[in-house]
UniProtKB/TrEMBL annotation:
This is Transcriptional regulator. The lineage of its organism: Bacteria, Pseudomonadati, Pseudomonadota, Alphaproteobacteria, Rhodospirillales. It comes from the Bacteria. Residues 24-277 form the EAL domain.
């Protein structure tokens, strides 16, 4: 086993890499088992519109609870699930679960919330994602206009199947968001072609933007560019009032972050929403 790197340079397969491979393989086996045993759940983080401080949406985020009570963070298993292709079935479960939750909230009289769901490019490239999405709508009764599919900005966005699938999803009535914007390498031309409604500024540019002038100018450019393309812009990972104040100045439309709330299980999110309405 050898890995190519750079211009035909061949890297030796070092012992640490072998260890990593073994732990990855073990992880992949555990993901399948965890899915069968119902160890995955979703938590929801509110998204706030700055203009009127209204909660306009939530983002569904995946959590894995092990039988010993510990939690595994998505960053620790999603890349492996993507490599192994398991993200296709896991992602299908996520979409159905989020749609079900959305319908339950709408029926339960919770103010209409846009439900954002992360979709891995791998789900689009490998599977028939529009068919998966169609099935999720049919089985849950969710309205696609209330579901926002988040696609991470990356080279993969240049893939023509990703573009055509995004168009199909848009035609089905879904909203599309571009996630982690500013960290990928997508071309402006491609960005203009994507039928998106929302651009999410990666939290790397939000952290400490009240004193880091470079982050602030990058965020400012992203907001201007998003607006120029007719998109709303949301800043991720907002932790302080100072960061939020800068975002207001930059005319960013929406924020999401620990300042308002961490991602919460459904019942806790309902309580959070009630307390917020009561306080207003
Ligand atoms: P993401 O989609 O960019 O989600 C935002 C991440 O930022 C979440 O991490 C959230 O908990 C975290 N976050 C939110 N506010 C703050 C803040 O104020 N400060 C800091 N430091 N972090 C904040 P999480 O839940 O660990 O998810 C990490 C990534 O895993 C997600 O990034 C997304 O790319 C991926 N992911 C999560 N759930 C899913 C899923 O269902 N499907 C797929 N394909 N990917 C998912
Ligand atoms: Mg996201
Ligand atoms: Mg992401
Ligand atoms: Mg993000």
């Amino acid at each position: 086993l050898a890995k190519k790197s750079g211009r035909g340079r061949v890297l030796r397969f070092e012992p640490e890499m072998e260890e990593e491979l073994h732990s990855r393989l073990a992880l992949i086996g555990r993901i399948a088992e965890a899915q069968a045993r119902g160890q995955f759940s979703l938590v929801y983080q509110p998204q706030i519109r700055l203009r009127d401080d209204a909660v306009v949406g939530v983002e569904a985020l995946l959590r894995w609870r092990c039988p010993d009570g510990s939690w595994i963070r998505p960053d620790a298993f999603i890349p492996a699930a993507e490599d192994a292709g398991q993200i296709v079935s896991l992602g299908e479960w996520v979409l159905r679960e989020a749609c079900q939750r959305q319908v339950a909230w709408r029926r339960g009289g919770v103010a209409p919330l846009r439900m954002a769901v992360n979709v891995s490019v791998r789900q689009i490239r490998d599977g028939d994602f529009p068919a998966v999405a169609e099935r999720a709508l049919r089985e849950t009764g969710a309205h696609p206009a209330e579901i926002e599919l988040e696609i991470t900005e990356s080279h993969a966005m240049e893939d023509s199947k990703v573009l055509s699938t995004a168009e199909t999803l848009r035609a089905m009535g879904f909203r599309i968001a571009i996630d982690d914007f500013g960290t990928g390498y997508s071309s402006l031309a491609r960005l203009r072609q994507l039928p998106a409604s929302l651009l999410k500024i990666d939290r790397a540019f939000v952290r400490g933007m009240d004193h880091a002038t470079d982050s602030r100018s990058i965020a400012s450019m992203i907001v201007k560019m998003g607006h120029e393309l007719g998109l709303d812009v949301l800043a991720e990972g907002v932790e302080t009032l100072e960061e939020e104040a800068v975002l207001r100045e930059l005319e960013c439309d929406e924020v999401q972050g620990f300042l308002h709330s961490k991602p919460l299980p459904p019942a806790e999110l309902e309580t959070w929403l009630c307390n917020r309405t009561a306080a207003a």
